[in-house]
Write a structure and sequence with these properties.
heterodimer; A: about 170 residues; alpha+beta; Heat Shock Protein 90; globular; disordered C terminus; B: about 110 residues; alpha/beta; Transcription Regulator spoIIAA; 5-stranded mixed beta sheet; 3 helices; about 30% strand
Chain lengths: ~170, ~110
């Protein structure tokens, strides 16, 4: 089980957790959105807050399928995406991990409009959307081993305490 | 996701409702491209008013189709009233290439 990276940010206790694993198939993008949505609604978020975290998760899972496992010579069914969702009293944290090819240059991957797969008509906006739709975002990757994305979203963001810091 | 194609003169109208993600973007792309090679189709209008969700896969699909109609000497329009999708379209600069309009009449 992964360590939470963001629990210090929301000053609240963990109240629920979900761990799931699914195949890196594009039909599971919708499954991942349903999972995060089912967890997030327990905190009664606004429509915008819910839509933000759902979109960010969709981007992260799509990245695993297209980039993480896209060029790996292995059946899609055998390529596993790990999904971890932690609920706090006023925030949600989602970890999405693949054991795919990894990212060589994370800084470059995070640049808006940069894509390693222009031939597949990717827009290069995935990381930009994850970063701008969430309150916390991290990416860890080892070439040849895989990538872990962690997304953090505070619900009721107007009530943030002043000393809340966003890790980079 | 629901997907409908209609034609009027040079214009191909693509109506998408439901959730537009990578899974369905691939499917839509193939169906649109098979129409774009049939004259006299030259322009394209995306009607996204029924969209409940879109991520960046939609951007890639849109820009790819924009390039195709541009190569045909045509134009692209989009109708979209979903706030989440509109935000992603704005962030990606899609409206610089694909003109936002309010109704099908603007493109006909």
């Amino acid at each position: 089980m992964s360590e939470s990276m963001f629990c210090d940010m929301c000053n609240s206790k963990e109240i629920n957790r979900l761990n799931a694993e699914f195949s890196a198939k594009s039909c599971n993008e919708k499954l991942a959105r349903s999972l995060v949505s089912a967890m997030a609604v327990q905190l009664d978020p606004t429509i915008d807050e819910l839509s933000d975290i759902v979109t960010a998760v969709s981007e992260a899972v799509t990245n695993c399928i297209i980039h993480g496992y896209g060029k790996i010579n292995k059946k899609k069914e055998a390529c596993i995406i790990k999904f971890e969702c932690i609920l706090y009293e006023n925030a949600i944290e989602v970890g999405i991990t693949d054991e795919g090819c990894g990212i060589e240059d994370i800084e470059k991957a995070r640049e808006p409009l940069y894509t390693s797969s222009p031939e597949m008509e990717r827009s290069g906006m995935g990381f930009t959307i994850m970063e701008s739709f969430c309150d916390g975002f991290s990416v860890q990757s080892i070439v040849g081993e895989g990538t872990e994305i962690r997304l953090f979203k505070i619900f009721g963001g107007d009530n943030l305490c002043e000393n809340t810091t966003i890790p980079q | 996701m629901k997907f409908e194609l209609a034609k009027t003169g040079n214009l191909l109208i693509v109506k998408v409702s439901g959730e537009l993600d990578h899974h369905f973007a691939d499917e839509i792309r193939i169906r649109i491209d098979s129409e774009l090679i049939k004259p006299p189709v030259r322009d394209i209008l995306f009607d996204f008013n029924g969209l409940s969700f879109m991520d960046s896969s939609g951007i890639g699909m849109l820009m790819g189709r924009y390039k195709k109609v541009k190569a045909l000497g045509g134009k692209a329009w989009i109708i979209c009233n979903n706030p989440n999708a509109t935000r992603i379209l704005e962030m990606s600069g899609v409206f610089q290439f694909i003109e936002k309009c309010e109704s099908i009449h603007d493109a006909v």
